[in-house]
Specification:
With 364 residues, the protein is an alpha/beta fold. It folds into two domains: 3-193, 2-Layer Sandwich (Beta Polymerase, domain 2), CATH 3.30.460; 225-353, no CATH class. It contains 14 helices and eight strands. Helix 13 crosses helix 14 (339-353).
Length: 364
Amino acid sequence: MDQHSEMILNEYREQYANFHIIREIVLNKLKEFVAEFGVVVNSVEARIKDEGSLAGKLELKGYKYQNLLDITDIVGARVVTFYMDEVDKFAAKVESSFDIDWDNTIDKRKTHKIDQFGYMSLHYICRIPKEMYYNPDFPIVNELRIEIQLRSVLQHAWAAIQHDTGYKTDVEIPREYLRNFNRLAGLLELADDAFCNMRNSIEDYRRRVKQVVKNGKLDDIELNGDSYKAYLENGGFDDINKRIATIGNMEIEEVSLANFLKVYKSFGFTTLKELDDFVKEYSDLAYELSIRQFTGKDIDIITSVTGPLSLCIVYALSKDMGVSIIKLILDAIYGPRKINERIANRYTNIGKSMGLLRSGDLDE
């Protein structure tokens, strides 16, 4: 290594503690963006170029740099999103939050010709503005340029593939392999678009379901995870829970009712209308079951599971399903527990006293 490159390397050593300050500022800011958007991303990371890597770079290209500030990737950060269109959201935040060096910033998504495929990523070269952080004792924090890469997870996969093969551009790829590289790159690009379109379609479907459920039009809505969630958000079991709570002036603690969906599916319900009819038809019996269960008990709080569970119990008992099915319902909702069989027997005895078991048996 020549003397000039050694001088830059010494400067790197002297400023190393400041690089950690820069790294933390950039990383925290990118995490703020993620929280602000409320999205899940594949990764948010930042690194400091290690001394060995910098030394190798200086040995090859040291003549290009007058000093340390000429090197733009001492500190690098990256956000990898799951969807391609989210890259633009982060790009807008980076541009409005950092001082961008536009001359060295590269949007590789726009560099390909119309019939060309390959690595696509957005590489910002920027500085930390004083409004974000300023300490006169550490001026390099605002002077050093940093690289922020934004890409989708499939773009990231393509970058990893190129790195693994050792080919960085189409120019380097032997002609006999170039066609296959371009075909694979094209497939990844199509997949990126397809995943975005699929997510948008799912979000549109969920919005439509929420609106239809809110309007009370349940006839043609398939019972699935999305429609069931909309039904819960619209207070599908609120009335029965509030009614049961009046038995002992009890409070209701809200807990997840997600596990009930598989129980309703096992009952053969296929639409929200069938679920809603079930709630209306068996509410009186569920309330009577709860009266027999809670009257005289010193209970101050019930969970939001109480109403839906009581509905399931009286439905199963009225269909003469017996202890074994009641236990399976409890297993599905609470997970397998030794106590579930004892609870199932207690519910079955209550059901028998209510005249729900046609056969009069405690089990099938």
